[in-house]
Amino acid sequence: MASNILSYEGCNFLRQRLILAILSGRPVKIRQIRSRDDNPGLREFEASLIRLLDKVTNGTRIEINETGTTLYFQPGLLYGGQVEHDCCPERSIGYYLEVLIALAPFMKNSLKATLKGVTNDQQDPSVDALKATSIPLMKMFGIDGEGLDLKIIKRGMPPGGGGEVIFTSPVRRSLKPVQFTDPGKIKRIRGVAYSVRVSPQIANRMVDSARSILNKFIPDIYIYTDHMKGANSGKSPGFGLTLVAEMTNGSFLSSEMASNPQGQGSPILPEDLGKNCAKILLEEIYRGGCVDSINQSLALLYMTLGQQDVSKVLLGPLSPYSIEFLRHLRNFFQVMFKIETQQPEEERKGGEKVLMTCVGTGFTNLSKTIK
């Protein structure tokens, strides 16, 4: 049994290691977690993530030493069902949600998770971006139907939080392989400009400035304004913008920005935020591919866990996170991808692309109850 344990060092990529440990059933030992730091060991948000994983699994064994610098994680079975979790406000709900999205199809019972905390911040993908890009990606791999939904009940901005989302997902016996190599052209841009505990006019100012840039390229732009009031607006003031470009064959690219948290940094003008967010979207479109940079690792995971058939996906330049994820996939599942770089045929097609090809491991969800 001991030879089966994978050992790692350091606090980076904790989520990747835990997700793959649970799916492959292999225990992981992670040493030297911030051992040289003034404040060593696991942070509160990482401990919160481990508690969440403990809630959705059955029989997981977790051992952490006194200083929190060593973690031994022996995964149990993915159980699913109804889960409520208060996410640590140091990171946004997106940090936790990305983990649940990766694991949800392989649970015993369909998942209904209520997550509370910060819905939009500056470092993790917001719940809006995940709703607009990750959910359609799940559908591409055959995880669809009634149960797949992400509802934003309340918004919460840092540092106070107070947001709430409900994520529901069906379970699948296996994932279908995909051939997803032509993203097509952009047909429309949608978005959400949200504001909480500030003037509702701020959302309109963001929309106008984002449109001033995007209107030069495409007429079909609609950005919803979402001003939540009262109990639904969380505990801290803030505003932000999420933009999504939809391609002709159903893939989505997104960009987002949020205002600085209350009391941190200089205040940012809504006009600047709208313009910068539009520019980031154009950058993301230039990178291109069928999947945007926040969902690269999710697409790679679902390809690996597909049926024993060839999957192909065209991506933009790989992010450092995705590169590390490929290394982890090799360690846990012994899957190697064929990686071919493709120069764009014409100059107007954006940056160089990467065609990822792999044969799925034929992963089947053994715990799914057969009705």
SSE blueprint and pairings:
Layout: E1 6-9, H1 14-24, E2 28-31, H2 44-56, E3 57-58, E4 61-64, E5 71-74, E6 77-78, E7 80-86, H3 93-103, E8 109-117, H4 127-140, E9 149-154, E10 163-169, E11 179-180, E12 186-196, H5 201-214, E13 221-228, E14 238-247, E15 252-258, H6 270-287, H7 296-304, E16 310-315, H8 320-333, E17 338-342, E18 353-359
Parallel strand pairs: 1-2, 7-8, 11-16, 12-13
Antiparallel strand pairs: 2-5, 3-6, 4-5, 8-10, 9-10, 12-14, 14-15, 16-18, 17-18
Shape: globular
| Biggest sheet statistics | 4 strands, mixed
Report strand %: 25-35%
Radius of gyration: 21 Å
State the secondary-structure class. alpha+beta
Order of helices and strands: EHEHEEEEEHEHEEEEHEEEHHEHEE
The average pLDDT score comes to: 93
Number of E-state strands: 18
Strand order of the largest sheet: 1-2-5-4
**Low-pLDDT windows of residues:** none
**Helix proportion of residues, in percent?**
25-40%
**C-alpha termini separation:** 34 Å
Total helix count? 8
Protein described:
With 371 residues, the protein is of the alpha+beta class. Helix content is 28%, strand content 28%. The chain has eight helices and 18 strands. The strands form five sheets. A four-stranded mixed beta sheet has the order 1-2-5-4, covered by helices on one side. Helix 1 (14-24) packs parallel to helix 8 (320-333) and helix 3 packs parallel to helix 4 (127-140). The model has no long low-confidence stretch (mean pLDDT 93).
